[in-house]
Amino acid sequence: MLKVVGASWQQTRWTTIMLLAVIVIAIFAIFFYEVPLQENDGYYSASVLWTKTSSFREIYWGQNNDPKSIIRGVARAYYKPDMIKTGWSTLEIETQPDYPDWVQAYAAGLLEGSLCWQLIYWHWQNTVATPCKAKQEFCDKVRKQLEENSKHTREQAAANDKISSYWHQVNLFYTQLDGLEAGWRSGVIRSRKTRLINIPKIDFLWMNSGSDLKDL
């Protein structure tokens, strides 16, 4: 009686699968060996687009970008948080003169607030939140005064924006401040920390008026 010696169909199939798996692993090994993964440079880029119909839109480009290649839009920013290396963080913002002044101002505020949200929060903790724990009554009075003054100033700026270069600049200040607050809240949402941190609206003005309030 003749006996056929050889592999069964099942064995042949498993051998083929194993061979293909080895080939795939080898290809991946060669690819990752020859093309090392790029490390993040720690610098962040973003742009703001605007149209009359869709209003403002922020675009975040992440890391490892050439500042000159970032889409301009209304404004673009390049953020370098080098506190550990140099003790400083650097934020570069460029706006485009083809857009209305108020659009440029708001877009610049959006970029600053969204990219620097963590630094803004730390600054608020150091200069407002923590000191106010021991001076709550005083801080309540400061906030009330700021709110009343801001309301009056905003009304004057809006009424005289078209006829006075001075009030035009004041109006742009508040416009950029509004953009900064909106950008900060957007940054907090992106970081998924909305339940953990918050800054009262009037305190954004407080932080920008620190030099005028220090003698109170």
Automatic annotation (TrEMBL):
Keywords associated with the record? Glycoprotein, Hydrolase, Lipid degradation, Lipid metabolism, Membrane, Signal, Transmembrane, Transmembrane helix
Q: Which family does it belong to?
A: Belongs to the phospholipase B-like family.
Give the EC number(s) under which this enzyme is classified. 3.1.1.-
Record bears the keyword Signal = yes
Q: Please give the function described in this protein's UniProt entry.
A: Putative phospholipase.
Q: What class of enzyme is it?
A: hydrolase
Instruction: Provide GO CC annotations from the record.
Output: extracellular region
List the PANTHER family: PHOSPHOLIPASE B-LIKE 2-RELATED (PTHR12370:SF3), PHOSPHOLIPASE B-RELATED (PTHR12370)
Going by the entry's taxonomy, the superkingdom of the source organism is recorded as Eukaryota
What is one Pfam family matched by this protein? Phospholip_B
Mention one GO biological process in which this protein takes part, according to its record.
phospholipid catabolic process
What protein is this chain from? Phospholipase B-like
Q: Which residues cross the membrane?
A: 12-33
Task: Report if keyword Coiled coil is assigned.
Answer: no
Question: Could you tell me which species this protein originates from?
Answer: Panstrongylus lignarius
Question: Which GO MF term does the entry hold, naming one?
Answer: phospholipase activity
